[in-house]
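#onboarding

Welcome to the new folks! Below is a worked example of what a typical request in this channel looks like: someone posts a single protein sequence, and someone else replies with the predicted structure as tokens. Don't worry about understanding the tokens yet, we'll cover that in week two.

Example request:
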Amino acid sequence: MTDGRSRTIAGLSASVLLLTSCSSTTEEAATQTLTTAAGPVTSAPEAGNVAGTVVRFRNDRHTVDVVIDNDTAATRDLVAMLPLTLTVDDHAGSEKIAYLPRALTHTGVPGSDPDNGDFVYYAPWGNLVFYYDATGIEFSDDTVHLGTFDATAEQLAGLETGSVTAEVTS
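Example response:
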């Protein structure tokens, strides 16, 4: 009986070792690095963590990449919605906005004080916001920070023509 138990334990140990080595290889293969103007970022995040994800907004002529820079209920919900087709419009000469098909989950996510280059979710309207002139905009619990982008007002204006696809890059 001892020999049978020893063989069972040895077999289980080998199986656990094999599964462990396979899972680390799978995780490494699933994570890719993308280099942007801000430096290298992870475009396929590890399971459950979306910080570092690059979301590309593009139409037939223009592209703006957003780097998700935190892992919150709101950022995870946004990434889970992708890909999406959106319409981008100017608002108040200071931001480009796009309405989502439904509200993002953002319970427990702190508000923010947006700066130029911030990508946020404005909870009362249910829209995404690209701030390119945040002059005079102050902290609000309704402004949920999602990430950052590096684009000029002119590059953002290019997204206003036609449908825009928002998707995680690979």
